[in-house]
Amino acid sequence: MRYCIIMMLLLACEDKVTNITPIELNDADGDGFNAEDDCDDDDPERNPGALEICDDIDNNCDGYADEGVGSFFYTDTDQDGFGSSWISIESCVAPPGFVDNNLDCNDMEPTANPLATEICDDIDNNCDGQIDENVGTTYYLDSDFDGYGSPDFEVVVCEPVEGFVLNNDDCDDFLAEVHPEAEEICDFLDNDCDGVIDNDLPLYLYYPDNDGDGYAANDATAIEACDMPVGYTPELGDCDDTTPDIGPDVIEINGDGIDNDCDGNIDGPSYVLENGIYISADTYPGDFNAAGGFCTAMVGQQAYLVGFGFINNMSLSTYPAGLWVGNSSSSDANTNCSLYTSADSGHQGYGNQGGYGACSQQRHVVCSTDPNHCWTDSSYCHMWD
Questions:
Q1: Of the candidates 47, 92, 54, the residue with the CA atom closest to the CA atom of residue 73
Q2: pTM to 2 decimals?
């Protein structure tokens, strides 16, 4: 029974399909689309099922030509072959004044594009984001305006800069007298920038003067210099370089037990003979004034050149060999004026006989710190200080 029912239904459906009347299409180009749906029924390549291609035609009949299949083109204002992203259009072919790239960094400047060579013109010619890189000129700071720059400060620019020069040859850019063309002088500077201080100049020996008295110790180590450095001297001879109170120019102070003048003799070349009278240990040449000046050096303080009258009226028990001696006559220099020897102990001596014949020869000098030793004749008594 169930089988019969199914067969009856199938026979009924088949009868209905057989009776449908086919719809006749109006498709002139035979592309399978009715003329009502086809945007160009004379061109089988154009229909709603066609793919849009870039040909300035609405291939898929959506009302738009070349949508989604064209290329973007960019305006090339400076006509250097590189466009700007400022203005772009989508098209199958580049319109006049447009190119297929937007790589130009300055579309108003034909010398600026990715293929341009960077030149020194304050423009980013090669579009790398830098201006005038590696193409400027290097200038060096010339602080002392001597025409030579410092290697320590430089700029790379296209145009010269005030205060800068093209060389970096200065070895001291704060001293205008120091540069490669300067003349080397003795100033403890490398004037000509050859790396050597005070070279090619005459050199002299200088010694450390520790006490500042103008003399160095005899065993001091010398340096060579073209001029005397501070704290040095060209002179040796200081027997105590720790104090300025001892040195060759210091006046010997008798009785202090020190060789003040560094002559090798403690308490100097003079000694007390008797009653405050000093007689020089060595003979002394010169005139009356020179002999008097020697008194100050000998005694070390205010001193008097002893008058011959005092000497003649005072009995001295000892005379050093070489002392000029004579009698009490001052008017006759040749009277009994002879050189004392150890055998002439009977003569009396005097040391201020400058201007009196034989007695003005080289002689010992007699001095005193007591003005009473001048006796009464002031013309033969002088104070030296």
A1: 92
A2: 0.43
